[in-house]
Design brief:
SH3_retrovirus, 26 strands, alpha+beta, about 650 residues, five-stranded antiparallel beta sheet
Amino acid sequence: MTAAYIHNRIPNSRVSTSPLECLFGIKPSPNELYPFGARAIVHVPKDYRDKLDERGNECFLLGFPKAGSGWMFYSPKYKRMIQSTSAVFPEYQSLSVKEPLERAEVEGALEKQPDRSELDALVCQIKLVLGGEPTKEIAETELKAIADLPVNQEHMLPNTIKSALSGADSSSWRKAAEYELKKFESLGVWEPVRPYKGLKALGARWVFTIKRMPDGSIDKFRARYVAKGFNQVMGTDCNETYAPTASLNTLRMLLSIAQTKNYPMASFDISSAYLYSPIEEEVYVQPPVKIVPEWKGKIMRLKKAMYGTQQAACCWWKFFSRKMMAFGFTASELEPSLYYCKRGEEFVVIWLHVDDGFAMGSSPKVLDDLHAAIATEMEVKWSTKVEKLVGINISTSPDSIQLNQSLLMDQIIKDYPRTAYPRRSTLPEGALELNTDAAVETTAYRSTLGSLIANPSEAHWEALDILVGYLKRTKDLGLVMKGGNGLLQLWSDANWGGEHERSTSGYLIKHCGNSIAWGARRQTVVVLSTCAAEYIALSEGSQQLAQLHNLLIDIDHVMPQEICCDNKAAILIAGDKASKKKTRYLSRAFYFINDFIRQYNIKIQWTDTHNQAADIFTKRLGPNLVEKALIQIGVTGTGHNQGREC
């Protein structure tokens, strides 16, 4: 095609004009001709990018298309061929046809041609053969090699129904869209009505995704018709919008209970959960006429909470709660998405995060009964082998449970635009000595590496390289639960006088020796001593301990508590065994720890700094101390030497 394209734009010996000009009267432009492999920035259409994505994609020129205008490019990012009419070639300026170039200028331009070493891999894949075969056979070989290049669809999810129905997986996306509309019909989500003057209907769009198995393989293509709820007006077509979800700390605590007591577990997923919940307000939505043309000119009145509406999550939570109450469950006051039911010696606990749930029971029979009860009301995907929940991979064995997010790590590493090399140790001393010219703010967000986007430099990119390299090195590590003592244990620590003169608090909570909750934060006040910093850390950690203790009361699994701290002065003040003279300037809220210890008669004991499990949450540690801390927390890998990878 490239040879034919050029031939039609070159004059021959019989006529002084080119075939293109003879046939169409159009003079050929040399600005359309570039050498094979020329680097280009190709415009990415709106259908294939989000609002904040890059609008240009670096590609390399392959030639010209069989049909249509423009060029054919190879995209290293997507590993596929792209046809486009919107491209810029940065290394090649537009050729001037008015003033011919001098020979010296031409030779100089040839010497300054860009290095195209990046095309080596592409040329090897195309397998160019120079001589020895007829031109036709060479062209067919190139065409076959290019057609066989792997296509990565992960980043090419369609953004519109038009692009979905015209792309490579059009049949799969159409089936997914038709399945979604059948679900609407079976659940009575809406009804068509004739529009009238003054009626305001929300726009809607299709959202496409690919659901994957725990090993990363494709499970199914998913299409969801979503309303543009940002156009809703509070008080007119929506009122309540808040919907609670259960926390990951609670999930880890339930997993620890199940592992320690050997209780049966199950995970479930409610298919199209929002579509089951009735909607109270009067809401109208534009129909998907691309899939159902006969709905053109009509408006759909919602009878159920459609995805995208502002009240959808709230309607779903209310609907599910009503069903659980009807089944005999009681919702926790602390976490309304945690449900508990006890009848005699039998009990069931349900943890719900939107439409993903976890169930734990005293016997397999009670879980089977729960499954049957939910299945009568909703379409549920139920599994007695818990493998994945809210993006966390879960591996179970007779004596342990392991949690990791290796698939998420792989995706982060794959999307990172730079090369990040795995590190064998923790961050070097100077890696975190970063600064920006922006004013320092006290919010939690700006205390993290992400805050440095305010004014990034190469030093910040290098720090991010180290972070992603660390993820690459430790992606196979996971949190292992094996059980141990029968205590709910808090480890509290602080690093006095850190960055910006604010101390850092850190805590770790263990249930029966299994780590279930942890945290680190910069303290909100400037303290005058190590004792005060440790005392504030004790107060903040004990608040988290109290929350988990109250949840254990709700599900009738109360156990003794213990607090470990490495500062004797803070221990004495918290236990009302020393004067508070040097901590009276602190806010009254920090004295919560004293009342908490008295109320529940909690044992608070001193631990050596070298055995402090929360030490890693307050300061930078060397490789050996990090390895020791990970063992204390319970973070290990599949290999025998994974601990040293940190």
